[in-house]
Fold this protein.
Amino acid sequence: MSADAVIWHDLECGCYRADLPDWHALAQRYPGVVLDIGAGTGRVALSLAHSDHRVIALERDAELAAELVRRAAGLPVEVICADACRFTLVSPVSLAIVPMQTIHLLADRPAFLDAALRALAPGGVLAVALLGEGVEPFELELEPDAVELGAVRYESAPTALRRRDGAVLLERRRSRIVNGSSKSALNLIRLAECDRATLSAEAVSAGFKPLSHRVIAPTADHAGSEIVCLEVPA
Ligand SMILES: C[S@@+](CC[C@H](N)C(=O)[O-])C[C@H]1O[C@@H](n2cnc3c(N)ncnc32)[C@H](O)[C@@H]1O
């Protein structure tokens, strides 16, 4: 039986697909090992590994990292349980990716950019997904995403999105329902505001060179995003 952290993570993040072609295109373009930052249970890392890309998956949450080790059995994935703001790799990689707005969760972006720069070979690229179109404030309980595992039904319903004090605050009601009896709690995620100009300026200070960006349109269930590519000068 999976840990609750794994179940909520899969329910809330696991079904997103719109960005996968972009990560695959980048992995093709920069051959070598891909470092997936904030890999979760491996939505992107496993997809790349199934296409024969070698992946280092870095994840801070020990339960998510352990589940990713289990799911990656037999695939070219090395899992490192560490904080993205203070990690080092034994050998540099050619591509580091930060999917699904993980960058907005990091407590110390400058420290992360320093660590990423050290982890990349000269000419390597850091590709970061930023929140894009469709992040509009609301106060309304939306239809839940749900999954049934054995006798337990898990539901996660967005209840509010607020933009305040330099952050996007996403509130969800998480319910665990057994035999018709429901226990609910509100879960709050804080995403620090960061746009392309801000990230690019910070990245230049760290030693990167802005390279390009690409836009991923919103879907019915997910906001859009923008992937910003930053190069380590050769
Ligand atoms: C929105 S999820 C994205 C998961 C996965 N990359 C995906 O695209 O489905 C963000 C992930 O980043 C991880 N994370 C947050 N802060 C982190 C940090 N400082 N270091 C490493 N991982 C972190 C979270 O535990 C979570 O698994």
Q: What stands out?
A: The longest strand covers residues 152-164.
